[in-house]
Write a structure and sequence with these properties.
five-stranded antiparallel sheet, about 25% strand, 7 helices, alpha+beta, 11 strands, four-stranded antiparallel sheet, about 230 residues
Length: about 230
């Protein structure tokens, strides 16, 4: 699918390590990171793609293409430090091969985002109605690229921002920490509700550990499932 191909920007080969160790972002595979943070649903003549876009994606892409661009990568941290970005494209398939995509306001009205912490407590993230100017500028800058590479789908790929800050606390929504980002698209008279879940920590951000049989171990595992041996932490 073209929308998936667009976002698989950079490939990287894994290496092995004993204990849990973060990869330098310049060595992170954008391809693997996108696979962990993007889901597609296509049924009932509706196509929906949802992408949780952690700031590490932008930084990894920048640092792999230009390793010395640490200042630019740092500007992404500054722009999105209090924000969670969710990308959504939604459309209705029209036979034989056309798609009617929903406009940004229609998509934003249906999307809800939640963060479930490591204790299973779920909190809804409020839409960032007045995001900082640098965050808005970055999003605006992606639109021409998306449109040129994906045509109508890219023009209707909407990047939505949500606040990490709630009335009670600031949520540490991080791809490095145990938790879950849940995104729902409310149903309509003609479309059923859809839900998408992205579990963290993300394997792509860590140096892979290996089980005794040589198979890679998920970063969330405590023991190897094949022989029960304890993994280094």
């Amino acid at each position: 699918m073209r929308c998936v191909v667009l976002l698989l920007l950079i490939a990287s080969a894994p290496s092995a390590s004993g204990a849990i160790e973060r990869k330098p972002l310049g060595e992170v595979s954008s391809q693997q990171l996108v696979r962990e943070t993007q889901q597609v649903s296509s049924e009932d003549n509706q196509i929906t793609l949802v992408w949780w876009v952690p700031v590490e994606f932008w930084k990894a892409t920048i640092l792999r293409t230009s390793p010395k661009s640490t200042y630019i990568a740092g500007q992404y941290d500054k722009a999105f430090k209090d924000l969670v970005m969710i990308g959504v494209v939604n459309g209705q398939l029209k036979p034989p091969d056309a798609t009617a995509f929903d406009a940004r306001d229609a998509v934003a009205a249906r999307v809800r985002a939640y963060y479930v912490d490591d204790k299973g407590v779920s909190r809804e993230l409020a839409p960032a109605l007045t995001p900082p100017g640098d965050a808005k500028a970055i999003i605006e800058g992606t639109k021409p690229m998306l449109k040129s590479m994906l045509g109508d789908m890219g023009a209707n790929f909407h990047l939505l921002l949500f606040n990490k800050n709630t009335a009670e606390q600031r949520l540490e929504v991080s791809p490095y920490a145990r938790g879950l980002v849940r995104v729902t698209l409310a149903g309509t008279e003609t479309q059923k509700e859809r839900a998408f879940e992205f579990e963290a920590p993300l394997n792509s951000l860590f140096v892979p550990r290996l089980c005794p049989n040589g198979k890679p171990a998920d970063v969330s595992w405590k023991v190897c499932p094949w022989d029960g041996s304890k993994l280094a932490e």
